[in-house]
Design goal:
With 269 residues, the protein is of the alpha/beta class. The chain contains 10 helices and 11 strands. β3, α2 and β4 form a beta-alpha-beta unit.
Length: 269
């Protein structure tokens, strides 16, 4: 059953294209800035939806084509509600000052938990493809034990991998141990990397120093899963897997966003 909602989606990846079709179940939806067309002078939809994340550099909108400046984009928005992911503070402040209610979906715990599961499933596929071996018996290091780290460790241990978790918190290390993982403090990360068949970073920090880089065996993939981590190095086999749900499970990722946005709107946030 349709409501009186109308939506405008600006930019984004495959998730946003699928989301646009889903939102037509509850109203009308127009998707802008994924082609060479110009953004309308005024966007007066019930809700404007920015990408998730809305920008990778904090300056330009995340989209397939054009990558316009965020400041230029928001000057066209006149919507009661604005959704997005990792919206820069100054952008949020400006929209709020103009009377809009801004909701950052990457601060929504319910969405983040589901998104972490999709990220972990996507990471599993990368591990299998990049190591060319079964997960059963594989030695895999997971750095960090937040939402994504937990989800990934659960999947890997269930499939018989020998998982080592490196984290800062004693409580996180204890939880990982209860899952059947080996654990090391983050200060001893080189020992967790040595001998691993794959290393996955879920901590939003640069974790590869000289000692860590030296601990990698030749050809072992380093899979960067953390938003804000980005540990690219020419000294290891680096795989950038940020924003993984939009790449490996766009339909499921779009469904999570759809469910959250429509629920919030029906409850008027």
């Amino acid at each position: 059953m349709k409501n009186n909602f109308d939506f405008a989606i600006l930019g984004g990846d495959r998730r946003m294209a699928i989301l646009a079709k889903m939102l037509e179940n509850v109203g009308t939806c127009k998707h802008f800035l994924n082609s060479d067309g110009d953004i309308p002078e005024r966007i007066e939809a019930t809700a404007t939806i920015l990408p998730i994340p809305c920008s990778f550099d904090g300056i330009r909108l995340s989209c397939f084509a054009g990558a316009p400046l965020l400041n230029d984009v928001i000057s066209h928005i006149y919507s009661p509600f604005v959704f997005g992911g990792r919206i820069p503070a100054e952008i949020r402040k400006e929209l709020t000052a103009r009377g809009m209610r801004v909701y950052d979906l990457l601060e929504d715990e319910a969405l983040l938990i589901k998104n972490a599961q999709l990220t972990a499933e996507g990471a599993l596929g990368i591990i299998i493809a990049e190591t060319q071996r079964a997960v059963l018996g594989a030695r895999i290091t997971v750095i960090g034990f937040g939402r994504i780290g937990r989800a990934l460790a659960r999947i890997l241990t269930a499939l018989g991998a020998r998982v080592t978790v490196a984290a800062r918190s004693d409580a996180q290390l204890a939880e990982a141990e209860c899952l059947g993982c080996l654990t090391v403090p983050l200060t001893e990360l080189p020992t967790a990397i040595a001998g691993a068949d794959a290393v996955c970073n879920t901590a939003p920090a640069h974790v590869l120093g000289r000692a860590e880089l030296a601990a990698f065996s030749a050809g072992v993939p380093f899979i960067e899963l953390a938003s804000g981590g980005f540990n690219a190095s020419s000294e290891v086999r680096f795989i950038n897997a940020q924003g993984l749900p939009g790449k490996t499970a766009p339909e499921s990722a779009a469904q999570i966003i759809y469910d959250r946005i429509t629920d919030l709107l029906l409850r008027q946030i």
